[in-house]
Design a protein that fits this description.
The complex is a heterodimer of chains A (about 100) and B (about 425). With about 100 residues, chain A is of the alpha+beta class. Chain A contains four helices and six strands. The longest helix of chain A is centred in the first third of the chain and has 6 residues. In chain B, about 35% of the residues lie in helices and about 25% in strands. The longest helix of chain B is centred in the C-terminal third of the chain and has 21 residues. In chain B, strands 3, 4, 5, 6, 11, 12, 13, 14 and 15 form a nine-stranded mixed β-sheet that branches. In chain B, strands 1, 2, 7, 8, 9, 10, 16 and 17 form an eight-stranded mixed β-sheet that branches. In chain B, strands 18-19 form a two-stranded antiparallel sheet. Chain B is an alpha+beta fold. In chain B, strand 16 and strand 17 form a beta hairpin. Classes of the chains: A alpha+beta (about 100), B alpha+beta (about 425). The interface between A and B is large, with 43 and 57 residues. The structure holds flavin-adenine dinucleotide (FAD) and iron/sulfur cluster (2 copies). Flavin-adenine dinucleotide binds next to helix 1, strand 3, strand 11, strand 14 and strand 15 of chain B.
Chain lengths: ~100, ~425
């Protein structure tokens, strides 16, 4: 490595998601009950969703399905059964090419 | 769609595609149903596949399969900060190869289709249908039904259908791990040069330590033809309690790691992906792998081996699909698709196969994976010893002195160290 080389920068999650191809459905395939989230002590989805689909806004969990990588993590870790989870229909959603 | 098939396979992953291929080759009327668009579009894995089981299933494997590089170097690293201790093994055999699972699966689906199976994509199966007597008679999607004598469930790790059927309980965090991955474009020549490999030869590399934020799990690096696949796997049960920052940051830290990033310097991230994997060692296996009219294969059956230094899922999935395909042929010949017969023809040979023997023998990894201390202390210990031995600025310590002082940095007594090592070696 040459000495003057800049240290590579971390890419923000919204930019990482740009590298992946989606055909976003107009219908959400995952539905979250915000009332249950309000009572959820640790809100693990806000850290463990790899697409950051769950974000804290003023202490409230806001969910958006568009960047979902369809991994299933939130379905497994949610302690409150706040999530109605399914895969998208009609081939919609993430379209992996090199994974 | 009121037609009836001999076999309907749900999920065109390695398990489902191999089941469809095998059953269709024997002349059965097979429907292979996939929710994704085209074959392979929902597939994610780490990067390396063992070839022997695929050679057994697919005669033309060596000629046709999308093989990127044959793995010639195996590396295992313990990482702490920007230091790492690496073990490397070199071999010139063609035992395992790197690829994209999207491509490998597409190829398997092509093989299934050329053997006569009908492939439908963009169809999400909503449920597996049973008659009043409990016999599985087909599948349902969007209110439409397709009937079959035998259904093969190869839906993968997220077992929505098996849960609905009552054959599997809802997945718990202690049963699965999350893998997050990036594919980075590097260029074929640069990979050869930077990883020290010849064209067509590659590296499989697993790392542990603070690359997972000290959470139980590991990181991986695989060289493809002109890209590298890098990623991190964390066990969800500990991750739920230990995670301190959004999980994508771990992969980004791996990509920008001071001791690693030069390997893919200036490389563009071409894709970002994530997927769950069953935790190794048998815990994710449903109570039974067949019922009247149904067989379960691949990840859905919990067939995954993670020894800490290698990951086997694709070949196990394919082999279990192959066994399910063969069992379907026999069961239909015998005219008996009842639970007892399918368990005899499919579950029994599978449980006696090397797959399940491997899973049982390697159960110690469960102990290791539920022991966060190990992931924190030992990589720090190993790099601490190496740094004392090699980064000499004054007096040169003996190996024993280096070990003792590095162990005391980690708050480990030498006795504890010896006992832990003994346990680990016995369990792996
Ligand atoms: C991070 C990570 C790294 C890994 N690394 C490796 C590795 O290096 N080597 C290795 O051998 N293994 C590896 N594995 C494991 C390997 O990926 C899996 O074991 C293997 O892909 C399982 O194959 P499968 O056919 O059982 O399931 P899947 O590959 O998951 O296929 C299931 C298919 O079913 C479809 N499907 C699901 N539900 C429905 C439905 N309701 N209707 C229609 N279609 C449906 C899905 O879209 C999917 O295409 C890794 C896994 C992970 C998560
Ligand atoms: S884990 Fe479940 S309940 Fe808690 S914040 Fe996330 S979605 Fe809501
Ligand atoms: S399935 Fe995975 S990517 Fe999608 S919202 Fe849940 S955790 Fe995020």
């Amino acid at each position: 490595m040459s000495t003057g080389e800049a240290k590579p920068k971390l890419i923000r999650v919204e930019d990482l998601l740009q590298r992946t191809v989606y055909d976003v459905d107009h219908r959400a395939h995952i539905i979250v009950d915000p009332e249950k989230c309000a009572r959820c002590p640790k809100k693990p989805c806000t850290y463990l969703c790899p697409a950051s689909c769950y974000v804290l806004v003023d202490d409230r969990v806001v969910f958006s399905y568009e960047g979902c990588l369809e991994c299933g993590t939130c379905r497994v870790i949610c302690p409150m059964e706040a999530i109605t989870w399914n895969f998208p229909v009609s081939g919609k959603g993430v379209q992996y090419r090199f994974a | 769609m009121e037609t009836k098939f001999d076999v309907v396979v749900v999920g065109a992953g390695p398990a489902g595609a191999s089941a469809a291929y095998t059953a269709a080759r024997h002349g059965l009327k097979v429907l292979l149903v996939e929710r994704g668009r085209g074959a392979g579009s929902k597939q994610v894995f780490g990067g390396r596949v063992y070839a022997a089981p695929l050679r057994e299933i697919y005669e033309d494997f060596d000629k046709e399969a999308p093989i990127h590089r044959w793995v010639r170097k195996e590396r295992v690293s313990l990482v702490h900060g920007d230091r790492m201790v690496t073990f490397e093994y070199e071999s010139d055999r063609t035992v395992s190869f790197t690829t994209y699972l999207t491509q490998l699966t597409s190829w398997m689906v092509e093989k299934a289709v050329s053997a006569g199976a009908i492939f439908v994509d963009e169809v999400r199966v909503d449920s597996i249908v049973r008659d009043d007597a409990g016999k599985v008679i087909g599948v349902e999607s969007g209110g439409e039904r397709v009937y079959a004598d035998i259904v093969v469930d190869a839906e993968g790790v997220n077992r929505l259908l098996l849960e609905k059927l009552g054959l599997a309980e809802k997945t718990r965090p202690s049963q699965v791990a999350l893998g997050v991955k990036e594919v980075v474009k590097v260029g074929e020549d640069k990979i050869n040069e930077r990883f020290g490999v010849a064209p067509g030869e590659g590296v499989s590399w697993v790392l542990t330590g603070d690359v997972t934020g000290n959470m139980p799990g590991g990181a991986f690096i695989y060289t493809n033809k002109d890209t590298v696949s890098i990623g991190v796997v964390v066990y969800l049960e500990s991750a739920v309690n230990m995670v301190k920052e959004p999980i994508h940051i771990l992969v980004e830290k791996l990509r920008t790691h001071p001791s690693l990033s030069r390997l893919w310097a200036d490389g563009d991230v071409m894709e970002y992906a994530a997927r769950l994997t069953p935790e190794s060692g048998y815990r994710y296996m449903p109570r039974k792998l067949a019922t009247h009219g149904l067989m379960v294969a691949g990840d859905a059956a919990g067939l995954l081996l993670n020894t800490g230094y290698t990951f086997r899922g694709v070949d196990y999935a394919a082999l279990s699909g192959y066994m399910a395909g063969n069992a379907a042929v026999k069961a239909l010949e015998e005219g008996d698709t009842g639970e007892e017969n399918l368990r005899r023809l499919y579950e029994k040979p599978l449980l006696e196969s090397f797959i399940v023997r491997d899973l049982k023998r390697h159960r110690g990894i469960e102990w290791l994976m539920s022991n966060p201390e190990f992931f924190k202390k030992y990589p720090a210990l190993a790099t601490g010893v190496a740094c004392r031995l090699f980064d000499l600025e004054g007096e040169a310590p003996t190996v024993y002195e280096a070990l003792r002082s590095s162990a005391s940095d980690q708050g480990l007594s030498l006795l504890r160290l010896v006992l832990d090592m003994f346990r680990v070696v016995r369990k792996l």
